[in-house]
Amino acid sequence: MTTLLAGPIQSVVLPEHETGLAQASSDALARFSIEESQQQPLSLHLENPLTGQKIDAIIPAAAVRVFAEVLAKMAEGRAVTLVPLHAELSTQQAAELLGVSRPYFIKLLEQGKMPFRKVGEQRRVLYQDLLRYMEAYQEAAHTALDEMTAQSQNMGLYD
């Protein structure tokens, strides 16, 4: 099933006073998931210290690894956004992720740089297609930079 994200894509950043807690939790989860789980689901016990509410949940090992990685990034002060690969993005959302204007992004679509579909008059792009485009763009940029470096070396301009 394809999901259209409602509203703007939101990133989450921890307050600075919680980064140490995120790092400790990430380290503990990473050690536990590597040493103990061996791809087995894990039991998780959560307790709200304010209300006393408690829950127990069974979590897939892969989700624990993702959670540990998310906490590690947040501990570094980095913003974290989770987007399903099959999510469908509006042109505005996709443009924001690429860091370009919406009109420029629409030009990319109309030039056939990545697949899209129309819902009425609006274009929708799969997040995984946007990722493929970004990877191809970065690869082309690296290749061009390597070629420029090689030419500079051949001309004796680069040591």
CATH topology of the largest domain: Multidrug-efflux Transporter Regulator, Chain: A, Domain 2
Structural class: alpha+beta
Low-confidence stretches: none
Proportion of beta-strand residues: 15-25%
Could you explain the architecture of this structure?
The protein has 159 residues and is of the alpha+beta class. It has helices spanning 19-37, 61-75, 91-98, 102-110, 127-154; strands at residues 3-4, 42-47, 54-59, 87-90, 117-119, 122-126. It has 2 domains: 16-75, no CATH class; 87-154, Multidrug-efflux Transporter Regulator, Chain: A, Domain 2 (Orthogonal Bundle). The chain is 50% helix and 16% strand. The chain has a 4-stranded mixed β-sheet with strand order 1-4-6-5. It has a two-stranded antiparallel sheet with strand order 2-3. The chain is extended and about 65 Å long. The termini are far apart. The mean pLDDT is 86.
